[in-house]
Design a protein that fits this description.
By secondary structure, this protein is of the alpha/beta class. Helices cover 37% and strands 18% of the residues. The strands form 3 sheets. Strands 3-2-4-5-7-6-12 form a 7-stranded mixed beta sheet, with helices on both faces. Strands 9-11-10-13-14 form a 5-stranded mixed beta sheet, with helices on both faces.
Length: 327
């Protein structure tokens, strides 16, 4: 096992897939000579050259469209399009939602769209309203898109390699605050299937469902709860669309209580959909109403104290767990 940061694990995944398949290339703002805004693409330009590691203008709709066109052309290429952040990808939503997501369906399966859109999603720290948005619910809302949200270096590498090889558009949402997190990554090749979640911590008293950087928040809360004799299970769906519903329902049947933790706003969120599915498929197993922890339903404030009040925290998760346990 190697110990890698998440940025290094993603870099390895891209490099290995570029070595394996000459049709894989990456494009985006500052991905080449600058080595990426978050150094995820460190060294790739020197290794693979200008034609496969491509710096773009600051035109998200433009280079998203170029990537989609290349994927649609049927010439064996598999573009990776880096969005410096998913906040900036809002400019490319027409290309992603109206073209990447729909081309295979509208062509009756004649066209494939093997493309990955990746970059950091969700609030970082003191970046204010326009740069602190968790947009996974918007992407997961769209049929035709696969939405993946890694939370560890191991997951990031195995999930991204699978995403690059898939013949459908994949939305790969990372976290700026997680790029430096370290973890074990096998030195041999491995893949993590699309739609396969993971139990990050076994437990019996309550199920905490979280993804991307909220997994770390959930695990910190679970460690504190253990000191009080509360045994929490932490479930990471890893892929939000398609969702590993079976993993979630089986956990709920075991623990009978659920807390969902997510970076995004509460209205029409992924957590809301998960709660609905639990109510539909496992209502009789619930011993308490589902609790959901979200960012505050406001644009993110810049002031640090207000930001801290707005985002999910281990303390908020602990309070929600105690509520569903009637403590």
């Amino acid at each position: 096992m190697a110990i890698l940061q998440i940025r290094e694990a993603i870099n390895q995944a891209i490099a290995e897939e570029m070595e394996r398949d000459p049709g894989v290339f990456i494009m985006g703002e500052e991905v080449a000579q600058y080595n990426g805004a978050y150094k995820v693409t460190q060294g790739l330009w020197k290794r693979f050259g200008d034609k496969r590691v491509i710096d773009t203008p600051i035109t998200e709709a433009g280079f998203a469209g170029i990537g989609i066109g290349a994927a649609l052309a049927g010439i064996g290429v598999r573009p990776i399009v880096e969005m410096m952040t998913w906040n900036f990808a809002i400019l490319a939503f027409d290309q992603i939602i109206n073209h990447a997501a729909k081309a295979r369906y509208m062509s009756g399966g004649q066209f494939k769209v093997p493309i990955v859109f990746r970059g950091p999603n969700g609030p970082a720290h003191m970046l204010s309203a326009q740069h602190s948005q968790a947009l996974e619910s918007m992407m997961a809302h769209v049929p035709g898109l696969i939405v993946m949200t890694p939370s560890t270096p191991y997951d990031a590498k195995g999930m991204l390699k699978t995403a690059i090889r898939d013949d459908n558009p994949v939305i790969f949402m990372e976290s700026e605050l997680m790029y430096g997190i370290k973890g074990e990554v096998p030195e041999e090749e491995y893949l993590i299937p699309i739609g396969k979640g993971d139990i990050k911590r076994e437990g019996t008293d309550v199920t905490i469902i979280a993804w991307t950087k909220m997994v770390a928040v959930a695990l910190k809360a679970a460690a504190e709860l253990e000191k009080e004799g509360i045994n929490a299970e932490v479930i990471d769906p890893r892929t939000l669309r398609p969702l590993d519903e079976e993993l979630i329902i089986n956990s709920v049947k075991k623990t009978n209580r659920v807390v969902i933790v997510e970076d995004s706003w509460p209205f029409a969120s992924v957590g809301t959909e998960i709660a609905f599915r639990i109510h539909t498929k496992a209502f009789d197993y619930l011993d308490a109403p589902i609790e959901k922890i979200n960012s505050a339903d406001v644009p993110m404030p810049y002031a640090e104290n207000l930001e801290n009040e707005s985002i999910p925290s281990p303390g908020k998760v602990i309070a929600a767990v105690k509520k569903v346990l009637y403590r």
